[in-house]
Amino acid sequence: MDIEGAECEALSGATHFFQTAKNLDFAICTYHRRNDCKKIKEYLDKMNCIYKQMGGYLFVKHRLRKAIIRGQKK
């Protein structure tokens, strides 16, 4: 999911989906807003997802930010 800074809002609307999904694989961009990485990880923890912050970074607004979380929900 790369929706230009609306990732957290999209996840908040997808709570039922994450609670009921089986065998879900996902990738979510975490670099658009300063606190996206933390907020997205907190959300995924609440949804009992297994995920990993990928090693890549992007230079955004004069700073390096972690770029992508990949994971799954079984």
Write the layout of secondary structure elements.
Elements: H1 7-13, H2 15-20, E1 24-29, H3 36-46, E2 50-53, E3 57-60, E4 63-66, E5 68-73
Antiparallel strand pairs: 1-5, 2-5, 3-4
Helix pairs in contact: 1-3
Key features of this structure:
74 residues; alpha+beta; two-stranded antiparallel sheet; 32% helix; 32% strand; 5 strands; three-stranded antiparallel beta sheet; 3 helices
Question: What does this protein look like?
Answer:
- With 74 residues, the chain is an alpha+beta fold.
- It has one domain (7-73).
- Helix content is 32%, strand content 32%.
- It is built from 3 helices and 5 strands; from the N terminus they run ααβαββββ.
- It has helices at residues 7-13, 15-20, 36-46; strands at residues 24-29, 50-53, 57-60, 63-66, 68-73.
- A hairpin with a 2-residue loop joins strand 3 (57-60) and strand 4.
Q: Which sheet architecture does the biggest sheet show? A: 3 strands, antiparallel
- The number of strands is 5
Low-confidence sequence ranges: none
Shape: globular
Tally the structural domains: 1
Quaternary organisation of the protein chains: single chain
Number of helices: 3
N-to-C terminal Cα separation, in Å? 19 Å
Determine the fraction of residues in helical runs and give it as a percent range.
25-40%
Which class best fits the helix and strand makeup?
A: alpha+beta
Mean pLDDT: 88
Biggest sheet strand order reads 1-5-2
Q: Proportion of β residues?
A: 25-35%
Work out the radius of gyration: 12 Å
Series of secondary-structure elements, N-terminal to C-terminal: HHEHEEEE
